[in-house]
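Page 47, continued from p. 46.
Same chain as before, 278 aa.
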Amino acid sequence: MNRKELNPESSPQAAFGAHLRSSREERGWTQEELADRMGYSSTHISSVETGRKLPTLRFSRSADRSFGIGDALDTFEREWREIRHGSLLEGFPEFVGHEGRAAEIRLYEVGVIPGLLQTPEYATVINQSEVRRGAITSDQASERIALVAERQAALNRTPPPLLFVVLDESCLRRPIGGPAVMDAQMVRLIEFADQPNTVLQVATFAMGERRPFNLPTTVLTLPDRQLMSYAESAQRGHLERESTTVLPLLTAYHQLQAEASSQAESVAMINRLRKGAP
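Result:
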């Protein structure tokens, strides 16, 4: 039997295939046996292992179930997201995978409306500005805009996650895309606040030094109550799972919520801004 050797370093697709093959061989399974477990043909398994066929999300999740690694760190779904979203900040695809399963999401954003709350028009303006600066290509911009929609759709699961959002006042006052885009975005925020599983608050400039965060921060609570946090630098995203690091962030987030305006006050502020009031 001819065996095609792959260099896992050559591409994320090759790394996925090598990982699939090594996982199968460690368990002493043939391609036919793995195919039966996953619900695919042996030809399909061979094509993915040798890099001739791209894996899909369904294929990746089936592999995770078959190998019993759905809760592990090095999953096939994580690798698929790195292939699918290769233009994104390092670490972000893995975070998105956890975000899509979280029972509770707490996020704080500065400067721009976070992706989970963006309208398509707002997301388009943000990403097209990156294209004009030469930071990303048009295809990469389209990919990022599509991912915003995918992440938002993942919130419509049953039961839905609890979603707590604190926006720095700068998110509301920074004009993006002109009055029509901003007005539609403000309406989207008000609709978000009206949902039964959400809380929206504004951290006003008046909070001053009482604001515990200076950078965007997200804290996830997974279905098994495990905590993890995500933060970004200019070059990469960092996902933290150690409780000694995440618990202080959760405490700081609760302090932020206590100091921020209430949801009713925050919605009233958004309505004032829509009318052009200071």
